[in-house]
Design brief:
The structure is a homodimer of 184-residue chains.
Chain A: E1 9-16, H1 22-34, E2 39-44, H2 48-61, E3 66-69, H3 73-83, E4 87-97, H4 98-101, E5 111-115, H5 123-127, E6 130-133, H6 141-153, H7 158-161, E7 167-170, E8 177-180
Parallel strand pairs in A: 1-2, 1-5, 2-3, 4-5, 4-6
Antiparallel strand pairs in A: 7-8
Helix pairs in contact in A: 1-2, 1-6
Chain lengths: 184, 184
């Protein structure tokens, strides 16, 4: 398993649709950030809104999390695949089971986790080094990403990973406990 | 840990908004089904669309998964809490950590997993037997539900749980392999 920060973890979101996927894409990026990814790459329809949400959450809740829009994901992934610059992991309900596959992924190299989207181009299955399913039932790319990252990154130390934010939520059995840093 | 089917697992989705939450709510129910819940209870704005999606997926992909609309979730949860008929688990970024809490949940009783929604009423924190966070960073109720169910239910045997469907996806490293039952 890679330790957090040792190797870059990116999430590439295919086929975003501005209206229909507004909240799913937003949740996907927040899940990437919260579960230890370093970066999300938005593809599909160009849309400032999720990029703004992710940057705003990062500035308020801390840590480093990058996001940008990539207009040509296939070209981008073909390059990665050709140069073997990162391992490409494609999360899909058609893939091989996580338990069987995760231990095969090299832990000394950065990874790009590709998630659809409706209608993922068939080429992605070939470009991916690993096509991985979190069960073979239909569910959600957000759920799949959370389970994959939870297995890949393991437990996160929030004090290390999310330092520098204005807002810190303190775990509590019965109430909302929030620490807000005062401006100097 | 409860074994699948031994005790009923329900998910209660608070505060659904017909337009904004269309896909998130749909994904939430599919995640509930795929990760071993028996039922989802939709609350907030009344909406046939997610109920139809869930029923359609269940009839195509197999298993038993119930869903219905509940117009008065607070009244419903107050009754559950008063009668102690089920354990109420509220997933919230303000709650106590999963690792610390999950072993305390009784495994001989049915559970209702409550997920927001924007603006969860404060009363829910008191009605819940356990307020549980999957990390204290903002992310997604879909991610939180997947991680909770994955810890609570454990590994699912899809052949047992999702029998009777027309469609069966077969795990594959390189392509889509789908088995479709022929009509008799």
């Amino acid at each position: 398993m890679s330790s957090v920060g040792a190797n870059d973890i990116s999430v590439l979101r295919l086929g975003h649709r501005r209206e229909r996927d507004k909240r799913i894409t937003s949740h996907l990026g927040l899940t990437a950030r919260a579960f230890g990814a370093d970066k999300i790459i938005l593809c599909g329809e160009e849309d400032k809104s999720p990029l703004e949400t992710w940057s705003s959450v990062t500035s308020r809740f801390g840590g480093n999390f990058d996001c940008y829009y990539e207009p040509k994901p296939l070209k981008f992934l073909r390059n990665v695949s050709k140069n073997k610059s990162s391992t490409i992991v494609h999360l899909t309900m058609y893939g091989e089971g996580l338990e069987k596959t995760i231990s095969k992924i090299p832990d000394d190299k950065s990874i790009i986790i590709v998630v659809g989207g409706t209608k993922v181009p068939g080429e992605i299955f070939g470009l991916a080094d690993y096509n991985i399913s979190i069960g073979n039932q239909p569910h959600s790319e957000v759920a799949a990403l959370a389970i994959f990252l939870n297995s890949w990154v393991g437990k996160i130390d929030p004090d290390k990973r999310f330092e520098g934010g204005e807002i810190k939520v303190l775990p509590s059995a019965r109430e909302k406990k929030v620490f807000i840093a005062e401006e100097e």
